[in-house]
Amino acid sequence: LCTACGVIVRVNPGTYEGVTQSKLDQMLRDVASKGVAMMSHPDVMIKMGAKDALVKIKDLSCGMSDTYAYYDVESFKSQFPQSVGSGTRVLKQNRGSQGEGIWVCSVKEGQEGEVNGSTMLCLQEAFDNHKEEKTIDEFMTFCESYIHGENGQLIDQRFLPRIVEGELRVNMIYQTPTEVVHKKPAEGGISATLASGAKYVSYKPEDPEVAGLINTFVNEDLPKVMPALGLETAPIPLIWTVDFMLGDKVDGKDTYFVGEFNCTCVGITQQLHLTSKVAEAAIAICQSR
User: Residue 60 — pLDDT band, cuts 50, 70, 90?
Assistant: First the structure.
C-alpha cells in the first residue's frame, strides 16, 4: 500500500448488526499498520474522547490544574469527599455525549465544615437540569456504575459558575478553526444540549466575540495538545471539535477552559460547504507522514 494513501472514517458502531466498537477499532488498526493514514486512528479517538483527556491537559492554559481522575472505586471514595468539601465540583462519567452522568455537586447549605459520608449534597445533572439530593455515601454508591466496565472512569473538576452563560464549541478541520457555536442553556439551566432547551448562535473564527479564544488556542495550546495526550506521533484529527467553558475574567478579559474533545464521527451535515477544505486537509495529513 502507498504511504500517501489515507482513509476517512465515518462509522457509528451500533448502527450495523455485528459491528461493535472493538471490531471496528481492530480493523482500523490493521489497515493503519499497512501504512495507511487513518483519519482518525482509533487510538486517537479513544484518547481524545476519554474524559481523562482533561487531566492530561490540566497544565496547559486551556486546562484546569485541579482536575482529577478516578479509575477505581477505592480512590474515588477516598478523595471525592475532600474534593467536594472544598467547593462546588463537576463529576463526569466517561460514557455518554448528551450530558448523561455529568453532575454538579455541592454541599447543602448549612452542612459546610467537616464533610463525611452522611453530609448531604445538592446535585444537578446536565442531561436535563433536574435536581436531587443525596448523602455523599449514597451518591458515591450511585456513581460506582460509572467506574465499572471497559474504559470506566470519573473526572472531578472545579465548577465554573459562568457555565450558565453557555459553552463555546470550536469546529476544527485539521489545524484550522472553521466555526464557533455558542450554546447557551435555557434560563436556570446548566446543560448546553438541544434537548434541554439550549439556544445555539454561530460565529466565524475571526468575529470579535470569539477571536480572543481562537487566537489563544491556536497559537498557544494547539501545538501542545497531542503531546499532552501521549499522541506525539499522531497527526491532529481531520474533523474534530473542542468545547470551551468560560472561566473568571482576568484583567477584564475572558478566560476559557476545555470541557471536552470530540473526534469520533463528528456531525458535519451543517458544514458540507467545507468539503474542499476537508479534502485539502486530508491530503496534507497523508503527505505529512
Answer: very high
The C-alpha torsion from 176 through 228 and 31 to 24, rounded to 10°, is -90
pLDDT category at 147 given cuts 50, 70, 90 is very high
| DSSP H/E element including 223 | helix 222-228
- pTM for the whole structure: 0.87
Q: Which residue has the higher pLDDT, 206 or 273?
A: 206
Residues 6+ apart with CB under 8 A from 25: 42, 46
Spell out the residues 6+ positions from residue 78 whose beta carbon is closer than 8 angstroms to its own: none
In 3-state terms, what secondary structure has residue 28? helix
Number of C-beta neighbours around residue 192 at 10 A: 25
Burial of 162 (0-12, 13-18, 19+ CB in 10 A): middle
Q: At what angle do helices 136-147 and 73-85 cross, to 10 degrees?
A: 140
